[in-house]
């Protein structure tokens, strides 16, 4: 599924193997495990030399991107395995409104050597709208629950 400004969001492919579900790894030059503490409202980052490929493996967060002087909030959860691909030049940050940490895997694609400025936080030009971020997370949770009910599994994914 395409999102905005070159950001791609797509479900993670998987196969069933006995009782286990095996998910396809993402190609990368470097893989990072990142933990976002509870109640974190992150500043923005922009990478000029890499593409981030983010997968939430524990918890949930709202990914924030800045486009045309507006924030966009993309909800992500471990209960809905999907990858968000963020190309170079896109300002982005994370919001973890929960009381538990959120853990993500970032399968980084390097386009040239690392630039020190790629990892310097950028101040937010205006405050995030935490009500919208929370509403997007709630919408996603409702959709996950609806999917479980429709599938007849009777439990959570």
Structural class of the secondary structure composition?
A: mainly beta
Number of DSSP E strands? 11
| Relative helix content | 10-25%
Question: How would you characterize the largest beta sheet?
Answer: 5 strands, antiparallel
Key structural traits:
single chain; 157 residues; mainly beta; 5-stranded antiparallel β-sheet; 4-stranded antiparallel β-sheet; 1 helix; 11 strands; 14% helix
Question: How would you characterize the overall build of this protein?
Answer:
The strands form three sheets. The protein has a five-stranded antiparallel beta sheet with strand order 1-9-6-11-4, with no helix packed on it. A four-stranded antiparallel beta sheet has the order 5-10-7-8, with helices on one face. The protein has a two-stranded antiparallel ribbon with strand order 2-3. The chain is built from one helix and eleven strands. The model has no long low-confidence stretch (mean pLDDT 89). It is mostly beta strands and 157 residues long.
